[in-house]
Amino acid sequence: MFKNLTERLSDIIKKMRREVRLTKDNTENMFREIRISLLEADVSLPVIKEFISNIRKKSIGKEILYSLTPGQSLVNLVQYELSHIMGANLDKKYFKLNLLPPFPSVILVVGLQGSGKTTSIGKLSKYLQKKKKKILTVSVDIYRPAAINQLKIVTLESGSDFFPSINTNNSVDIVNSALNYAKINNYDVLIIDTPGQVGIDKKMINEINLIYKIAQPVETLLIVDCMLGQDSLNHAKIFNNMLTLTGIILTKLDGDARGGAALSIQYIIKKPIKFIGISEKIYGLEKFDPIRMTNRILGMGDILSLINSAKENINKISSKKIESKNKEIFDLNDFKAQLIQMKKMGGLNVLIEKLPYYIQKKTNKHDIDKTEKQIKRIEGIINSMTLYERKKPDSIKAKRKKRIAAGAGVNVQEINQMLIQFKQMQNIMQKIKGNSIMKIIRNIKKYIS
């Protein structure tokens, strides 16, 4: 996420911190480097001008010039202004979903075809379900039957309910039927997937506006594909002028090395970013926080989001089962449970992206991807074992290894390697108090400071 921008800004931040005294020359050099970094990241020009203007004005103030650590004070100023560009000055309520009665609360999701609109609805359903909400989804994208089927798949994957679009070409009838069904069956939230096309045309906007009048949504969320750069900002401006938007979901941030759209969009259309898509997985949706995002962009990491993600995604019952063993026997069921918990947090790539940049630099993406594949294979191996073998790993000898290898589609050497890795994990878990991944994450600052 924002790899190129983070690399450049991290280097600039290091230089700033080393400055014992700020002069006109060294500050202007820093501002020029920041400007070039933002331009290369495809940040909107008005945003860059406003940002540089603000830090230039404030950097000549007494609190910066006469500070005991002027370089660090300038870093703090850059951090402050960058977070405000993304909405840190707004009240926190603007970043929350408005899910007030009467129920069902209706969320209208709009965006272009291919922006990740339908997938984001599945992720949003999963997110709200974790908040103990009863969710129903419906698609009115009557021109694309495949989109309706895709919504059904991601909805069922999220554990929510899907309302089948009735056999009609009338989106109004579909919305009315879904609303009535949601009311009768006491759903908390109804999420409507609107028509999506490759480009924005008047017919699509008119249809969405008609759906809006009938559904009376409490939230109208625009899906913005970060990979499109400046084009995504242009599309957002058009949607914003034609519809009553309440917020934005940024998608494909995990594949966006530049970050221009994320930095610019709130400033350009004056609507809050409510969520960000951080992976393709059903759990890959996070609440947006401008201050934490700024820290990630500047290479400072986002440990707080990591902890919150752990709290939200780790199954408390599963954690308690592992903790209750209290340093006794950590078996292969526990090993698999820890791997699943990590997957729910987005996998290794997402976890590492939230660490400070100096730690990220020590990791190799190829190695991480290889490890992710190995984790999947380990799951497959454990799934091929009997319950007895999972509880008693020492019972797995030559004959059992051959049978497990055949069932998992791997060779015996991989079984041996997995068992060695398990033994290593077993030793680590005996040394860590409570045998809980949550406790490791709570203490993560100790390991990176």
From TrEMBL:
The keyword Glycosyltransferase does not apply. Its EC number is 3.6.5.4. This is signal-recognition-particle GTPase. Its main location: cytoplasm. Belongs to the GTP-binding SRP family. SRP54 subfamily. Gene3D superfamilies: P-loop containing nucleotide triphosphate hydrolases (3.40.50.300), Signal recognition particle SRP54, nucleotide-binding domain (1.20.120.140), Signal recognition particle, SRP54 subunit, M-domain (1.10.260.30). Pfam families: SRP54, SRP54_N, SRP_SPB. SMART domains: AAA, SRP54, SRP54_N. PROSITE patterns: SRP54 (PS00300). One of its GO terms (biological process) is SRP-dependent cotranslational protein targeting to membrane. It catalyses: GTP + H2O = GDP + phosphate + H(+). SUPFAM superfamilies: Domain of the SRP/SRP receptor G-proteins, P-loop containing nucleoside triphosphate hydrolases, Signal peptide-binding domain. One of its GO terms (molecular function) is 7S RNA binding.
